[in-house]
Design a protein that fits this description.
The protein is an alpha/beta fold. About 40% of the residues lie in helices and about 30% in strands. The protein has 9 helices and 17 strands. The protein has a 5-stranded parallel beta sheet, sandwiched between helices. A 5-stranded antiparallel beta sheet has the order 12-11-10-14-13. Strands 15-16-17 form a 3-stranded antiparallel beta sheet.
Length: about 280
């Protein structure tokens, strides 16, 4: 089965390099067209009806999000896609892509990561997984940046996209190459990405902290912490063990809090329970 592929990128050299890499490494890939602007990209996709599109975000006369939004309005998003981002792209844009569980690659492109992403796309095409859920969440987050830190899209091991309210997540735990999300109601979700994929943004933008290489907790569910034993007691009664470095980071964080990080009453309650 040939996978009809389109590259939308306003830099000719990058388009050419991508084309060579794809043709050389994937016999399934058939490049049916290239474009460098919103209008030409939208027309090409509508005409060719591809299986897979690689989008550079910033292109002539707008962004690739304009193309996707226009095509979605016409019911023509029937393909898989990944984004190419640059350091010049805004932080909120990259967050929206990541929090909506869409794949992206950062320029300059890492060939190994490109191969990995394309392999994932090929497999999802074979399994006939729908990417419209991801697109819906992405466009919503781009239109409403204030929602970015409220929920996250998790691509599960079953190929579904689950939207999760971040305040309901007690902790994340690594299980090999997947990540287990434990929710307040006892539900467990298995995310298709490794824990590092989620940890960076959650720890920076929300009240999460990494206490172990394989464990990230929501501080709003922290009940008590014992530095001497590195035991972390969560409000649901679960006891987690922090690594030495994680214990140090958690202790320093709690002792150097600012009211803007967490509610003052919550921090005071935690500090009273510290057994230093």
């Amino acid at each position: 089965m040939k996978i009809k592929t389109i590259i939308i990128e306003d830099n000719y050299k990058i388009r050419e390099s991508l084309g060579i890499l794809l043709k050389t490494n994937f016999s399934e890939i058939e490049i049916v067209g290239e474009a460098d602007s919103v209008s030409s990209g939208e027309e090409l996709i509508s005409t060719q009806k591809p299986d897979f599109v690689i989008f550079d975000i910033d292109i002539f006369k707008g962004t690739s999000f304009d193309i996707l939004s226009n095509l979605k309005a016409k019911g023509e998003v029937n393909f898989k896609f990944i984004f190419l981002t640059a350091h010049s792209n805004t932080e909120n844009t990259i967050k929206a892509i990541k929090y909506s569980a869409n794949d992206f690659l950062v320029k300059p492109l890492d060939e190994a990561l490109l191969m990995e992403s394309v392999n994932t796309i090929i497999e999802s095409i074979r399994q006939k997984q729908d990417q419209n859920q991801k697109l819906d969440l992405l466009l919503e987050l781009l239109d409403n940046p204030g929602n970015i830190n409220q929920r996250i899209g998790i691509q599960t091991t079953k190929g579904q996209i689950q939207q999760v309210i971040l305040k309901d997540v007690i902790y994340l735990k690594s299980d090999g190459i997947i990540t287990i999300f434990r929710l307040e109601d006892g539900t467990e979700l298995k995310g298709f990405k490794n824990i590092g994929y989620y940890a960076d943004n959650l720890c920076r933008d929300y009240d999460f902290i990494q206490i172990h290489q394989g464990i990230v907790i929501n501080l709003n569910f922290l009940k008590a912490f014992t530095p001497s034993t590195r035991e972390v007691l969560m409000k649901n009664g679960l006891i987690l063990e922090a690594s030495r470095n994680g214990s140090r980071v958690l202790k320093e964080y709690l002792l150097s809090y600012s009211p803007s990080k967490l509610k003052l009453g919550f921090i005071k309650d935690i500090l009273l329970k510290l057994k230093i």
